[in-house]
Write a structure and sequence with these properties.
This protein has 16 helices and 12 strands. By secondary structure, it is α/β, with parallel strands linked by helices. Helix 6 packs parallel to helix 7 (184-193), helix 12 packs antiparallel against helix 13 and helix 12 packs across helix 15 (369-380).
C-alpha cells in the first residue's frame, strides 16, 4: 500500500480509501459479517482511510462501520463521515447530528469531517446558519480533527467555497471523463495549491468505467496498449497519476474488487502512466463522450434557469442512462437530485422548462437545450417517478430519531 501526506497535518493516508456507501447486502440489508470481514481485511493490508455518511444504506452504514472498527481497528484508521447539510435547518441541528454520528460510530471523535453535498447555494445557506462557528467549536472541543467538504456544484462555485474557510481537505468527483465537470482538474489543482488534501469520489463513475467488458470502441483502445490493464486499472492509475490527489475512495463490496484495488494501490505513484498511455486514456474519454446523448460539459453557463431547471444535472443523468445501460440507477438518481431535497429545496426537473430559450444563447456548446430537455422528460419522468422519489427520500432523508 502506498501513502500520501496531508499537507496541513502530516497524516500519511493510504492512497486507497474504503467507501462505505455500497457495502455488500443480503435480503435488502447490509450483510454485516461479510462487510466487517471486508473492511478489516483491507485495514490489515494497509488501508487506513474509512469513509461513510449519515444517509448511506438508509442510515445503517455508520453503525456498521462503528462495529467493524471494534477490537483495535479504530486506532489503526482515519475515520471520515459527513454532516448531512440537506437535513440542517438550524445551528443546533449541526450539533445534534454530529453527536448522533459520534454515538452511531461509537467513537469520541471524527478524524475527517465533511460538510456533505455542497453547492454554491447550499454553502451560502450553511454560512447563514452558522457553519463557521460549528466547525470551529467542534474542532476546539476535539469532536472533529480535520474539517472538509464534499462538492457537487458548478465549477465556478468551488473556488469560492475553498476560500471561505480554512479547510483541511475536500472531496471531489474526478475521473478521466470528468476533467471539466464540477470541480474538475482546475479545482483539483486549486485545492492542492491551498494545501488541501484532495479525496476523490466516483473514480469509476459509479462502477461504469470499470466494467470488465467496456463498449467495443473502448475495448479496442485498451487493446492498443503495450501494457495490458483492466478498465479499473486504467481509471485508477490515471487518477493516481496526478500528484495533487491524496486518496481515491472506492465503494468496494466484492472480495475480488478489493483484492484488485489493493494490488493497484501498490502501483499508484504520481506519473505512473507515460505519455503514450495518457494519450490512450484521453482517446478513451473522447470515445465515451461520443456515446453521450448530449455533449454537455457541466460548465453551468446556462444557469440560472428562470424556471429553475437544473440543466447540467438533467443532462448528466440523461447521459448516464444511455451511456452505461443502467436505467434504474440513472432514474433513481434523477428523481432525488431533481427534487431539490439534497440542495436548496427547489426542484429542477426537466419538465419545468418553459421553452424560453435563454439557455440556448448562453451555451458554449450550442446545445438545443429545450429540445434535449423534452427528451429527458420522455426518458426520465415516466409513471414511476413518484415511486422512485418516495423510495429515495426514505433512504436519503432519514432524520435523527
Amino acid at each position: 500500500m502506498l501513502y500520501r501526506k496531508v499537507p496541513k497535518n502530516g497524516d500519511e493516508l493510504s492512497i486507497l480509501g474504503f467507501g462505505c456507501m455500497r457495502l455488500p447486502t443480503k435480503e435488502g440489508q447490509i450483510d454485516e459479517p461479510r462487510a466487517i470481514r471486508q473492511i478489516r481485511s483491507a485495514i490489515d493490508r494497509g488501508l487506513n482511510y474509512i469513509d461513510t455518511a449519515w444517509p448511506y444504506h438508509g442510515g445503517e452504514s455508520e453503525p456498521l462501520v462503528g462495529r467493524a472498527l471494534k477490537d483495535g481497528y479504530r486506532e489503526r484508521v482515519k475515520l471520515a463521515t459527513k454532516l448531512p447539510s440537506f437535513l440542517i435547518k438550524t445551528r443546533e441541528d449541526m450539533d445534534l447530528y454530529l453527536n448522533a454520528q459520534l454515538k452511531k460510530l461509537d467513537t469520541d471523535h471524527i478524524d475527517y469531517y465533511l460538510v456533505h453535498t455542497l453547492t454554491g447555494p447550499v454553502w451560502e445557506a450553511m454560512v447563514k446558519l452558522g457553519i463557521h462557528d460549528f466547525l470551529d467549536k467542534a474542532k476546539a472541543d476535539g469532536l472533529i480533527v480535520n474539517a472538509g467538504f464534499s462538492f457537487h456544484g458548478l465549477p465556478g462555485d468551488f473556488k469560492k467555497i475553498v476560500d471561505d474557510y480554512p479547510w483541511d481537505f475536500c472531496q471531489i468527483q474526478y475521473n478521466y471523463l470528468d476533467e471539466e465537470y464540477q470541480a474538475g482538474t482546475a479545482g483539483l489543482k486549486y485545492a492542492a495549491s491551498k494545501d488541501l488534501a484532495v479525496i476523490i469520489m466516483e473514480p469509476l463513475r459509479g462502477g461504469n468505467l470499470g466494467q470488465p467488458t467496456p463498449p467495443p470502441a473502448i475495448e479496442k483502445i485498451w487493446a492498443k496498449a503495450e501494457t495490458s490493464r483492466s478498465p479499473v486499472a486504467w481509471a485508477l492509475l490515471w487518477i493516481w497519476n496526478h500528484p495533487e490527489v491524496t486518496v481515491i475512495l472506492s465503494g468496494m463490496n466484492e472480495e475480488a474488487h478489493i483484492d484488485e484495488n489493493i494490488a493497484l494501490a501498490e502501483q499508484g505513484f504520481p506519473a505512473v502512466l507515460d505519455s503514450a498511455e495518457l494519450e490512450l486514456v484521453a482517446h478513451a474519454a473522447n470515445s465515451y463522450r461520443e456515446l453521450m446523448k448530449v455533449g454537455c460539459t457541466g460548465c453551468g453557463y446556462c444557469m440560472p434557469c428562470p424556471a429553475n431547471v437544473a440543466i447540467p444535472i438533467c443532462f448528466e443523468m440523461f447521459n448516464k442512462l444511455h451511456m452505461f445501460n443502467q436505467p434504474d440507477v440513472a432514474r433513481f438518481g434523477y428523481a432525488i437530485r431533481m427534487s431539490g431535497d439534497l440542495t436548496n429545496g427547489i426542484s429542477g426537473y426537466a419538465s419545468q422548462c418553459v421553452q424560453c430559450g435563454l439557455c440556448v444563447d448562453k451555451c458554449p456548446q450550442q446545445i438545443p437545450i429545450p429540445d434535449i430537455l423534452a427528451q429527458v422528460v420522455a426518458d426520465m419522468e415516466d409513471e414511476g417517478l413518484s415511486e422512485r422519489l418516495t423510495m429515495a427520500r426514505k433512504i436519503m432523508l432519514k432524520k435523527v430519531n
